[in-house]
Amino acid sequence: MAVATFAARDWSAVSTPNRLSPQTNAYSVGPLSPWTPGTLRKTPGPVPFARPSARAAGLPRTAAHDAPTMARMETPQRLRAEQYAVAFEVAQLAFIRLVESLSDEQWRRTGRNYPQRLNEEDEQRTVGVIAHHVAINTPWIMERIERMLEGRPLPPVDIREINARQAAEHAAVSKEEVLRLLREQQPAIAARVRAIPDDQLDQSRDTPAGPMSVAQRLERVLIGHIAVHQGSIEAAIA
């Protein structure tokens, strides 16, 4: 099976442990199980539908998880979207569990980009600020994906300036506040991913990082962003 490489600046989906190719300075992913937390499998075509139960994935039960299997199979146009939604839920839940485990001392430690320094953004922020950064940017990332679906352009943004401002404004953010944001946003964002028709996932759009499909944005940005910063926090507290 071919190895898929994603540019690090696009918050690539990474496996655990993360692997960085010194030749390409890009994350190297695969071959991977599509349901391993923190990982995604890149395939040349539609991914077979193999949805785990909520209990197997470690997810809280919701109305969506309780829906009869046959009812889901009656809407094949969203089978891939369903898989991306569950991959997001698994990544988000793993991140929530990590944040829950942090002590007050760990919350104040300075982050470490892992497996190496990428843009140095986490080298100057505390673990708490990194966790808050993930919590407040996940909805924003989803909004930009929905702009792509609508055919609207994605305006470039100064990520360094935004991150520096957020770090200054939320330097004293509490773990409780971050956990509240993460838990509240998960069902709504997963539902928005599930609502994406499969025939739109491979539509390519121009982005500030170059041409990218909706599926790639889901993998590399929505889910990959969580994985990259989880690596930073884990490296800081190791």
Number of helices: 9
Using only CA atoms, what is the Rg?
Answer: 17 Å
Indicate the overall shape.
globular
Number of domains: 1
Question: CATH first level: which class?
Answer: Mainly Alpha
DSSP strand content: 5-15%
Measured between the Cα atoms of the first and last residue, the distance is: 32 Å
Q: Assign the structural class, choosing from mainly alpha, mainly beta, alpha/beta, alpha+beta, or little secondary structure.
A: mainly alpha
Number of strands: 5
Q: Say which CATH homologous superfamily is assigned.
A: dinb family like domain
Overall pLDDT: 74
Helix-strand string: EEEHHHHHHHHEEH
Topology:
Blueprint: E1 4-7, E2 20-21, E3 26-29, H1 54-57, H2 63-66, H3 69-73, H4 79-101, H5 104-107, H6 127-149, H7 159-169, H8 175-194, E4 204-205, E5 212-213, H9 214-237
Antiparallel strand pairs: 1-3, 2-3, 4-5
Helix pairs in contact: 4-8, 4-9, 6-8, 6-9
Structure described in brief:
The longest helix has 24 residues, at 214-237. The protein is 50% helix and 6% strand. The protein is built from nine helices and five strands; from the N terminus they run E-E-E-H-H-H-H-H-H-H-H-E-E-H.
